[in-house]
């Protein structure tokens, strides 16, 4: 065993060092290194100094890919189609899944609902470190979930959880949450970098060895990153984030990392009296607008994974009292907003340098797609000129640095979805111009930003 028992770990990226240093050489973050005591257990954690010199154990066989039997890897559907959609088709045995979210997002509710259903086909153990078994049982009862299969345990000690794994031999293990689990072998407090890192590694390893599904709950901080070390994200196979909408009614589940599927899928739930309900056809749920059309607002169609979503983009442009005007984007990328304003100045001839610009996606949706560019710019121009855009107009398209409007994927499907919801006018990239417009819809295909701004609607 190597002598060093402590290491310095970056809380941002998880890199470890022998000595303390002010800046992490890997990710460049300052002041993120903290000392952790490595647990003495063999193989636990990733010891920087403790790499083994030789190997005396039994060597695992190395095989060519074609010899490896993959037919047995079956996905287990959770019974919640929206959850499965984000997971890429269901749970994979021997994998570790991290469910992140703000406190109150509904992580415990989602997992309780899924596990109560799953427990009838596979033995499941729910380890709770935050709520008492009574609280959870009461909730399950209130939500009319099947109560007779799921095993529940209140425990935060990792050694005890491992012992319970041996005793109950579950096929599905939930740990709610990883931040409260601690190991006695480490001196630091639960929730600290070293505890979270070590406990998650131990649990992940146990899950892989036993071929069970491990579901970890993790809290996120205000800025959306996982409380505790980022290194957790490297360890687990799949990381999903549950976020609540502005008005708290809807919850969106988004994949951030998935070793078994795509990450761009979005699952949508509604939080009701009866727990989380799936929203099967969510394309227009975020679209609730008053009768009066105001300037600075326009509807666009986002393509989330494999389906469309109609969302309203709002912009407010106002004289800035400050020397350095503010640019604020909620639900959109801040840097992209700055870039689009520069394009607007250069290729649209509109100077907003002395104006505050606020942009918002209604309903708390986060748009990562570039198809929002044109809609956002038109909303900004509409607010700046104080001229409302028509209520029945839908817009999408990417805007390039040269002021050109670039096509986006699934243009036809986006238009069809908008037509279905009563939109009769559309501004789309020329590359997305349909051969035949959806019935009753007038489609303006534009190639440049100047063309789009010149349209008289
Ligand atoms: P919870 O699952 O405890 O959140 P987390 O584990 O992510 O912290 O959910 C708590 C919130 O959900 C709480 O604000 C109340 C709300 N809720 C409902 O509105 N209806 C319900 O049926 C349940 C169980 C919770
Ligand atoms: Mg909880």
TrEMBL record:
InterPro entries: AAA+_ATPase (IPR003593), DNA_repair_RadA (IPR004504), P-loop_NTPase (IPR027417), RecA_ATP-bd (IPR020588), Ribosomal_Su5_D2-typ_SF (IPR020568), Ribsml_uS5_D2-typ_fold_subgr (IPR014721), Rubredoxin_2 (IPR041166). A motif (RadA KNRFG motif) lies at residues 257-261. ATP binds at residues 101-108. CDD domains: RadA_SMS_N. Keywords: ATP-binding, DNA damage, DNA repair, DNA-binding, Hydrolase, Metal-binding, Nucleotide-binding, Stress response, Zinc, Zinc-finger. Residues 356-457 are annotated as: Lon-protease-like. The middle region has homology to RecA with ATPase motifs including the RadA KNRFG motif, while the C-terminus is homologous to Lon protease. Plays a role in repairing double-strand DNA breaks, probably involving stabilizing or processing branched DNA or blocked replication forks. Belongs to the RecA family. RadA subfamily. PANTHER family: DNA REPAIR PROTEIN RADA, DNA REPAIR PROTEIN RADA-LIKE PROTEIN. This is DNA repair protein RadA. It comes from Congregibacter variabilis. The gene is radA.
């Amino acid at each position: 065993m190597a002598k060093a028992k402590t290491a310095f770990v970056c809380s941002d990226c998880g890199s470890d060092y022998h000595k303390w240093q002010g800046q992490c050489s890997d990710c460049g973050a300052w002041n993120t290194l903290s000392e952790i005591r490595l647990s003495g257990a063999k193989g636990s954690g990733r010891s920087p100094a403790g790499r083994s010199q030789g190997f005396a154990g039994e060597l695992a066989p190395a095989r060519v890919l074609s010899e490896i039997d993959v037919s047995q890897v079956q996905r287990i559907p959770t019974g919640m189609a929206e959850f499965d959609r984000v997971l890429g088709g269901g749970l994979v045995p021997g994998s570790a899944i991290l469910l992140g979210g703000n406190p109150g997002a509904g992580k415990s509710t989602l997992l309780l609902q899924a596990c109560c259903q799953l427990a009838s086909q596979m033995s499941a153990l729910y380890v709770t470190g935050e709520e008492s078994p009574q609280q959870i049982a009461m909730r399950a009862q209130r939500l009319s979930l099947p109560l007779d299969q799921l095993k529940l345990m209140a425990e935060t000690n990792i050694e005890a959880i491992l012992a319970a794994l041996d005793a109950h031999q579950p096929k599905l293990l939930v740990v709610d949450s990883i931040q409260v689990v601690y190991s006695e072998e480490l001196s630091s407090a639960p929730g600290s970098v070293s505890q979270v890192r070590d406990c998650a590694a131990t649990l992940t390893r146990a899950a892989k060895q036993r071929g069970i599904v491990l579901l970890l709950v993790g809290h996120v901080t205000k800025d959306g990153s996982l409380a505790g070390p980022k290194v957790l994200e490297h360890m687990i196979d799949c990381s999903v984030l549950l976020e609540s909408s502005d008005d708290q009614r809807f919850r969106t589940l988004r994949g951030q990392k998935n070793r078994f599927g795509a990450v761009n899928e979005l699952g949508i739930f509604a939080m009701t009296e009866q727990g989380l309900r799936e929203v099967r056809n969510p394309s227009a749920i975020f679209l609730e607008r008053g009768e009066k059309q105001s300037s600075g607002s326009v509807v666009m169609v986002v393509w989330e994974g494999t389906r469309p979503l109609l969302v309203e983009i709002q912009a407010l442009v106002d004289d800035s009292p400050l020397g350095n005007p503010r640019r604020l984007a909620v639900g959109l990328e801040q840097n992209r907003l700055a870039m689009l304003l520069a394009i607007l100045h250069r290729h649209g001839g509109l100077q907003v340098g002395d104006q505050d610009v606020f942009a918002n996606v209604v309903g708390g949706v986060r748009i990562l797609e570039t198809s929002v560019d044109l809609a956002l710019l038109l909303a900004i121009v509409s607010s700046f000129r104080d001229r409302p855009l028509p209520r029945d107009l839908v817009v999408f398209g990417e805007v390039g640095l040269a002021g050109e409007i670039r096509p986006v994927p699934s243009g036809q499907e986006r238009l069809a979805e908008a037509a279905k919801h009563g939109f009769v006018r559309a501004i789309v990239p020329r590359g997305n111009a349909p051969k035949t417009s959806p019935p009753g819809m007038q489609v303006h295909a534009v190639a440049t930003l100047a063309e789009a701004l010149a349209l008289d609607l």
